[in-house]
Design brief:
Blueprint: E1 2-5, H1 9-14, H2 16-28, E2 32-34, H3 44-48, H4 56-66, E3 71-74, H5 77-86, H6 95-98, E4 101-103, H7 104-111, E5 124-127, H8 131-136, H9 152-157, E6 164-165, H10 181-184, H11 186-202, E7 207-210, H12 213-225, E8 231-234, H13 235-239
Parallel strand pairs: 1-2, 1-3, 3-4, 5-6, 5-7, 7-8
Helix pairs in contact: 11-12
Amino acid sequence: MKVGLFIPCYVDQFYPGAAIATLQLLEKLGVDVTYPPNQTCCGQPMANSGFEHLTGSCNDLFIKNFAGFDYIVAPSGSCVLHIKEHLHGDADPQATINHKVYELTEFLTDVLKVKSLQAKFPHKVGMHQSCHGQRGLHLSQMTELVAPEYSKPGSLLNMVEGIELIPLNRKDECCGFGGTFCVAEEAVSVKMGKDRVADHLEHGAEYITGVDMSCLMHMEGILNRQGSKVKVLHIAEILNAG
């Protein structure tokens, strides 16, 4: 299979380590990965702000960059959900692209069907379940449903040698980032973030991980302002560790 690596703009600019770990992890698993160098923003920030009608050029460029791949993989649940649900353009029919795009843990679980990993991370880790991943992509079960529990990111993390996934009181609570929500509703966003961080700290986390660096960036800012030694890491960096 030919896989195109889609790296969101904020990951490219602020957390390139997450992008590199994603590439290395896929290559370790024998995947033929290509990074189209002309990719830019997928258009999600504009769409979230009410300006989806201005995302046409982003859509067309995305289609141009990724139409030739069997799969498109990205280390970001929110950007993947945007492409799945909102990508449209004149360059190509919508259906030929949208069904090809996968969030990293979704791809590892559903397409590659990974059963083991050569990774080692001997630390206490709290897993943040981002809203887009959980409620949009269904990467993990929602606790309000009376249904069997599952977690694609959690199952992969449990394959890592030495890791201790800590319990949380409210494991699927929003961190408050919410894209442009953190700008429009700053005070509410910060309070939600502090509550989310406090849950991890209460249970002794050394690291907080997740599938979206945007959520982790929000919590990292709060941790830094509190003078905490707890670090954030994208899940790809843990699955690729050791």
